[in-house]
Write a structure and sequence with these properties.
By secondary structure, this protein is α/β, with parallel strands linked by helices. It has 8 helices and 9 strands. The chain starts with a strand and ends with a helix.
Length: 227
């Protein structure tokens, strides 16, 4: 699993055990995935720059923020103020300002990602794909935890890898949504670089974060060895 990265989605963590869970995960994960939803782009409101600052107080793990918002420019500015490592915006809301956002994030020496909803084709981002540090494929409809996994989205992960290999691009490929024991095997066939882990794949497996992590790894390894 040397080439595979795990990124827990902190929206699904147990906030009553914030310190305990973050301090354990600091020694095991490659990054943290933090959703910011404005209640407009999706009908839900979650987390905030303030929450990110609390994580940064007890963690040096890179933070990747997934913006599900209708005004990405405002939120990009707020996240740059607090030195967020990755800022990921939805392709569906940046038409007309994509280059401006990409350039601004890079000018601050931070990394930029673009997220594609299940219905959004890769062609939408091809004009600027060479400038991206990460592309995230939503494997569920965005906005809530526990949504149904959409198998057809895996084809985009395969296509992204082909485009990257052909053109020697540097972006990472990330999947977001219902990554768990039931889906690990088919996700791995598509071969993303980063797995985002939520409640079904990590935090809901056990009240103890260490035991939940052990179960996740066991489920993942078992899925990869199944015939």
């Amino acid at each position: 699993m040397d080439n595979i990265e795990f990124s827990p989605s902190l929206m699904t963590m147990d906030l009553d055990k914030f310190n305990e869970q973050i301090k354990f995960l600091n020694n095991h994960v490659d990054s943290y995935h933090i959703d910011i939803m404005d209640g407009h782009y999706v009908p839900n409101i979650t987390l905030s720059p303030w929450f990110i600052e609390q994580v940064k107080k007890i963690s040096d793990v890179p933070i990747s923020v997934h913006l599900m918002v209708t005004n990405p420019s405002f939120w990009v500015d707020e996240l740059l103020k607090i030195e967020t490592d990755y800022i990921c915006v939805h392709a569906e809301v940046i038409n007309g300002i994509a280059y401006r956002i990409i350039n601004k994030i890079h000018e601050h020496n931070k990394k930029v990602g673009v997220v594609l909803n299940p219905e959004t084709p890769i062609d939408v981002i091809k004009p600027y794909i060479q400038y991206l540090d990460k592309v995230t494929i939503m494997t569920v409809d965005p906005g809530f935890a526990g949504e149904k996994f959409i198998d057809e989205t895996l084809e985009k992960i395969v296509e992204l890898r082909k485009i990257r290999d052909k053109n020697q691009y540097k972006y990472l490929i990330e999947m977001d949504g219902s990554s768990n024991k039931k889906t690990f095997k088919k996700i791995q066939k598509a071969n993303p670089d980063i797995y985002i882990l939520g409640r079904s794949g990590l935090f809901g497996l056990d009240e103890s974060i260490s035991k939940a992590w052990e179960k996740m790894l066991r489920d993942f390894n078992q899925a990869l060895t199944e015939v």
